[in-house]
Design brief:
heterodimer; A: about 280 residues; mainly beta; twelve-stranded mixed sheet; 1 helix; B: mainly alpha; 9 helices; about 65% helix
Chain lengths: ~280, ~210
């Protein structure tokens, strides 16, 4: 009896709540037929962009627009899809916010622009480029493509990115690379911290530099590396027993080291001006 | 030859260094041939820009003289020393910071958002907390900050902080290079510092155009 009397009230309250929270929100879903290895570009000044691998030959863009102060501009050709959150007069960070969920073919090339929203990309095999001021960037389980990240102060997290050509430029955002390898892995940071945990595989070139940010690299005992590390004003530590090698600069104890480990297949350069550098041995 | 190998020798190809192997890759790879065509086009446009807009040859000369006097660059020797593998990507890669700096200057001078950069425009200054140190900035940086003050006032302090960080990095890298001009790693740090500053300008200008 009690349940019966409460049920209509509960439904009414839920409906009104839904209306209140949903007021001003506009949901859109866009479908594009594309060819092999399409180029997909999402430009979203405010709000998150989540991109996952979907069906071949199809791009699906689901967007939630938080007000009528922003609209979606789209353009597409046979193999190119561009979607832009177009801010209208009077929009701001709240009213201009758009949440994107995008599915692209696994081999798609992707460009994402977001100023302050989370950028999350996973399971792609194509080239990836992201840009943003404060947006956090996560790239997970990707392979065989270029991954280029530019951020001012957003944190960057790459995990399980294989055989990549990776370039990250960051001012203050921390950069975390876990299980990342490829022929070219480069991080250029200013105050942000750089952390690497992986095998330094693929006979690659790994260049990590910072101005004041700390650099920490964790590698296994079987890593095959030729390493040079120097911090002009910071402390440098090394857990490995390296074979000495010649360096073009004077190695002072405590602020630089250089040497090889195993067959020295990959080149590792760790350079900072005043950040602390630590090459750690992974404890298995 | 694959795309990665081609990218590494791209500067040589741009300077006319064609071989059968490179040409074969260009013939088989639309991406690389398009990239090469774009770069040639940019190079051509840049020459036009240099002829028609600032900076004038005098600026280039003055800049070159300044860099030479500071020991940051030298006249090319008859037999150039072998470069570090880090610089295999380009024989002239050390010019990148110089070109980047000029690109920033030219970019800011050419970029005229509505109402910005006018002489009569009121210049907004950053509000600084008592006791906080204000680092001096160049006139170009100040012009950039003034533009951001009108276009992106909410982010002005953040841009200023990022600019200070980038300038501090450039300053430290230059000092390190002065102490040891032959240090290829210090050269790379300077390149990285300028790359950060260029990114700051790019992102700021790009973002402000969305407003």
């Amino acid at each position: 009896m009690i349940a019966v009397s409460w049920a209509p009230k509960a439904v009414t309250v839920l409906a009104l709540t839904g209306l209140a929270f949903g007021a001003g929100e506009i949901r859109k879903e866009l479908h594009f037929k594309v060819g092999k290895r399409p180029m997909v570009s999402i430009n979203n000044p405010y709000g998150p962009v989540v991109v996952r691998a979907g069906a071949p030959h199809q791009v699906v863009v689901s967007a939630i627009l938080h007000s009528d102060k922003v609209e979606l501009d789209q353009s597409s050709t046979r193999n190119r899809v561009d979607v832009i959150s177009h801010l209208l007069a009077g929009s701001d960070q709240n009213t201009g916010l758009v949440e994107y969920e995008v599915q692209v073919p696994p081999e798609a090339d992707l460009t994402v622009h977001s100023e302050n929203g989370r950028i999350h990309i996973e399971n792609l095999q194509g080239d990836i480029a992201t840009e943003g001021s404060d947006s956090s960037v996560e790239v997970l389980d990707c392979a065989n493509g270029h991954v280029h990240v530019k951020t001012l102060n957003g944190p960057v997290n790459l995990s399980n990115v294989r055989n990549g050509h990776i370039e990250i430029v960051s001012m203050g955002g921390d950069v975390l690379l876990s299980g990342v390898d490829g022929p070219w892995v480069s991080v250029n940071s200013n105050t942000g911290r750089i952390q690497y945990a992986g095998n330094f595989g693929d006979e690659g070139e790994y260049d990590f530099t910072s101005h004041t940010g700390d650099i920490e690299a964790v590698a296994p005992a079987f890593a095959s590396i030729d390493v040079v590390a120097r911090s002009n004003q910071g402390r440098v530590e090394n857990d490995f027993s390296l074979e000495p090698k010649h360096t073009p600069f004077y190695v002072k104890g405590g602020n630089a080291f250089a040497g090889t480990l195993n067959k020295a297949a990959s080149s590792v350069k760790l350079f900072s001006f005043s950040g602390r550098i630590h090459l750690k041995k992974r404890q298995n | 030859m694959n795309c990665l190998e081609f990218e590494r020798i791209l500067p040589e190809v741009l300077e006319g260094g064609h071989t059968t192997e490179r040409q074969a890759h260009l013939n088989s790879c639309p991406a690389c041939s398009n990239l090469l065509a774009d770069l040639k086009d940019i190079s051509l446009q840049a020459k036009t820009l240099a002829d028609s807009a600032e900076p004038s040859p005098m600026v280039w000369n003055a800049l070159e003289a300044q860099l030479r006097s500071e020991g940051l660059i030298r006249r090319p020797a008859a037999a150039a020393p072998a470069r570090s593998p880090w610089f295999r990507r380009s024989k002239t890669v050390w010019l990148v910071p110089v070109v980047a700096a000029l690109a920033i200057v030219v970019g800011i001078k050419l970029y005229h958002p509505a109402g910005a950069g006018e002489k009569q425009q009121a210049v907004k200054h950053i509000v600084v907390a008592p006791g906080q140190t204000v680092r001096p900035v160049s006139s170009d940086d100040q012009q950039f900050l003034n533009t951001m003050a009108t276009r992106r006032p909410a982010r002005q302090a953040r841009y200023r902080a990022d600019m200070d960080d980038a300038n501090a990095f450039i300053h430290d890298a230059e000092q390190a290079l002065k102490s040891n001009p032959g240090d290829v790693y210090a050269q790379q740090m300077l390149i990285n510092a300028y790359e950060q500053k260029q990114m700051l300008y790019d992102l700021a200008v790009d973002r402000s155009s969305l407003q």
